[in-house]
Amino acid sequence: MAKKRTIRTIPRERTPMREQPAAERVKNFAEVACGFSQEDALRESERCLLCPDQPCVGGCPVGIDIPGFIERIGQKDFRGAYDVLTDTNLLPAVCGRVCPQENQCEGVCTVGESLEPVAIGRLERWVGDKAIAEGWTGAPYIEPVPYRVGIVGSGPAGVACAADMAKAGCDVTVYEAFHLPGGVLRYGIPDFRLPNEVIDAEIGRLEKLGVKFECNTLVGRLFTIEQMIDELGFHAVFVGTGAGYPTMLGIPGDSLNGVLSANELLTRCNLMRAKEFPNYDTPLPLGRRVAVVGAGNTAMDAMRVCKRLGAEKVYCIYRRSRTECPARAEEVHHAEEEGIEFHWLTNPAEILDDGQGGVRGMRCIRMELGEPDDSGRRRPVPVAGSEHDFECDLVVFAIGTNANPIMGQTSSLKLNKWGYIETDADLATSVAGVYAGGDIVTGAATVIEAMGAGRRAARSMKAYLGIRDPDQPYAIDGRGSAGRMFGLDPQQRNFARIRAA
Amino acid sequence: MQGFEIVAREDFSDVTYLLEVSHPAMARAARPGQFVIVMSHPEGERIPLTIADYDRAKGTITLVIQAVGKTTREMQQDCVVGSPLYGVTGPMGIPSHIGKAKKVVCVGGGLGVAPVYPQARAYKESGAYVIGIVGFRSKELMFWQDKFGAVCDQLIVCTDDGSAGIKGMVTAGIKKALREHDDIDEFVVIGPPVMMKGCAEATRAHKVKTMVSLNPLMVDGTGMCGGCRVKIGGEVKFACVDGPDFDGHLVDFDDLMTRLRRFTEQEKAATKRWSETCRMATVPHVAAAAEEAELPDPFDEVQGG
């Protein structure tokens, strides 16, 4: 038997991942992080102590059996590792790339207490990529049930819900307003972070599960949620439309032509392929000196896109300091390597007009950190008399998004005061049979959190439809176990099937 | 067939053409004032086009398009009956509010006649007295006179050169209508921004409600990019989800016109490149249109279509 691993016997250093050198990658849209080789993955898998308390599983929003899949990598049972991953996470190749692991699984890793934590995200990505390369689908035997499920939005929440419902045997249709599926994965995250081939592969796997994708379909306007239930014959509907409505700062000059939202920049560049203009028809605003306001992941993406499009200078303008910056650590690090200039504790006050509707520069004010605010972060307060101007010709706002209003305008779904859909703990909305999850419920969050919500909603939808859930044979969270036998929950409503018989 | 099939086409002039597209679900859902986003091919851009008509029985929607930029000219050349459009999404925007107005003036400037038609028809069906005002540069460019006239109780035609109806712009027609009727409840104006601005000014003094339909540059049409933001009474609104209809007396038209010129340079470059490389020499009227020296600023004219 192999000797028990201890913190003293495992490799001390985290296995480095090959990356494109910064000087080279700012000229292309190829992926920055090249991923592990098999040797890298095997070496890194040895760093996991397989500790009994498994804090990483609790740190993961969907509770992936992390030691389980890492152990299988170590045993060279790669297919097994993939199966463990896809038990809980449908899109390992995506999440391995875009999850903020340092705040989730890796942030609580036991190894991380004394050494660098196990590179869980990189291992997850490696397994996901391996599955794509090998063509593993992970499609189980599916027993059909006579229910139709409609999913609104093909982003992370929608596809996670779609996969679970398809595995439960439902006839699942996903509606997408754009001409290609993927939601924010497609329009928001640039190729150098998440290549389109990965999205295509993951969508392809869903199609193998029997999920149908209907693009060019704006639910709410083409038909309403209520019509889906009443007329189109869906037994249950999941709404995962995201929080796409961009916030503008509301300062003088923010409707000038050189000012745009990060959403617009990224949509033009990623989804519409404007970076390949004029081979693709969508034009892109080009800036010589670009100021990006905000310091989240979207801001980092916007800055790095501008750099690759040929901007000479790209500035990051953020009103708090680096400590409060909400982006993934790796993204900030990559942005710094690529020569992005960070201006911490700086807040825009006015965007200056060049006299022809364009931007000449930006007037900013310095900030200092005061007392902590509601979010627990120290509140930035302006320093009197510290206004200063600097030259720029493109301003990109990456300061967050609000709820998309279309669902509220077209359905009777109850919304909260910010316009997000109100749900109960089971993610059921105010309309019977309609569930919602992801950013349209919680406000802007991460890909993995949205996927977690999609899966939670799927669990509730199965209970609503009376489908037995093999993942939940004996207990549904928080409802006690009295009277529950043989995997049946008294709350399950099987009347439809009895009637059919 | 992949995409959405074009079932009929009609050319009104060298630069304007009509496409009837098969899309039964959209024909059922469409209401006056709404628009679609069209992508003619997978490498294309997404362009907003107002729905000019819809036939629920046939399951089709009608788009009237003016060939002004690269995409619309390319569509003029490529869109033939039986061929598909790669993407048609919609109906987008909040439908026009057809209120209880008793007397309504529907004003269409140039291509704007097409999108204002469904509203005129809806008002007619609601029992209102409908006065139609249409304006064109000259008689040759006129279209849908009979179709539009059929839903109006009175039709005023204006042409810039006087070749038909009143000589002058639609504002001359508005003055005439205001002179003849003192009980007009509402104006509905669709056309190029500069024309809508003129009309809003013409009705402002009379304090008659004037609705305009804005069609700024858009990418997604679902409220996601903010590219279509417009200033309404000092507030920022997104035309795609908060509009496209707004109170004409509150719209900042100068801001709209500036924002419409955002990509003028790229548009010119794309058109030039396309004209030089991809255009088929066998379509003489397209060539003639491209070389027409007096073609108006595309971003003024693209509105309303």
Stated plainly, the CATH topology of the largest domain in chain A is called FAD/NAD(P)-binding domain
- What fold name stands as the CATH topology of the largest domain in chain B? Elongation Factor Tu (Ef-tu), domain 3
Discrete helix count of chain B:
11
Strand line-up across the major sheet of chain A: 5-4-3-6-18
In CATH, the architecture of the largest domain in chain A is: 3-Layer(bba) Sandwich
How would you portray this structure in words?
The complex is a heterodimer of chains A (501) and B (305). In chain A, 32% of the residues lie in helices and 16% in strands. Chain A has 501 residues and is of the alpha/beta class. Mean pLDDT of chain A is 85; it is low at 473-485 and 494-501. Chain B is an alpha/beta fold and 305 residues long. Chain B folds into 2 domains: 4-92 and 264-301, Elongation Factor Tu (Ef-tu), domain 3 (Beta Barrel), CATH 2.40.30; 103-213, Rossmann fold, CATH 3.40.50. Helix content of chain B is 31%, strand content 29%. Chain B has helices at residues 24-29, 70-78, 113-125, 145-150, 170-180, 193-204, 239-242, 253-260, 264-277, 284-291, 298-301; strands spanning 4-11, 16-22, 35-39, 47-55, 60-66, 84-85, 87-92, 103-109, 129-136, 154-159, 166-167, 186-190, 209-213, 229-232, 235-238, 245-247. In chain B, the strands form 3 sheets. A 7-stranded antiparallel sheet of chain B has the order 6-1-2-5-4-3-7. Classes of the chains: A alpha/beta (501), B alpha/beta (305).
Keywords:
A: 501 residues; alpha/beta; Fumarate Reductase Iron-sulfur Protein, Chain B, domain 2; FAD/NAD(P)-binding domain; 5-stranded parallel sheet; 18 strands; B: Elongation Factor Tu (Ef-tu), domain 3; Rossmann fold; 7-stranded antiparallel sheet; 31% helix; disordered C terminus
Task: Spell out the blueprint of helices and strands.
The complex is a heterodimer of chains A (501) and B (305).
Chain A: E1 18-19, H1 22-25, E2 33-35, H2 38-45, H3 55-59, H4 66-74, H5 78-88, H6 92-98, H7 120-134, E3 148-152, H8 156-167, E4 171-175, H9 184-187, H10 196-208, E5 212-214, H11 225-230, E6 236-239, E7 245-246, E8 259-261, H12 262-271, E9 289-293, H13 297-308, E10 313-317, H14 329-337, E11 341-343, E12 346-353, E13 359-372, E14 378-382, E15 388-391, E16 394-397, E17 401-402, H15 406-410, E18 434-436, H16 439-442, H17 447-465, H18 495-500
Parallel strand pairs in A: 3-4, 3-6, 4-5, 6-18, 8-16, 9-10, 9-16, 10-11
Antiparallel strand pairs in A: 1-2, 7-17, 12-13, 13-14, 13-15
Chain B: E1 4-11, E2 16-22, H1 24-29, E3 35-39, E4 47-55, E5 60-66, H2 70-78, E6 84-85, E7 87-92, E8 103-109, H3 113-125, E9 129-136, H4 145-150, E10 154-159, E11 166-167, H5 170-180, E12 186-190, H6 193-204, E13 209-213, E14 229-232, E15 235-238, H7 239-242, E16 245-247, H8 253-260, H9 264-277, H10 284-291, H11 298-301
Parallel strand pairs in B: 8-9, 8-12, 9-10, 10-11, 12-13
Antiparallel strand pairs in B: 1-2, 1-6, 2-5, 3-4, 3-7, 4-5, 13-16, 14-15
Helix pairs in contact in B: 2-9, 5-6
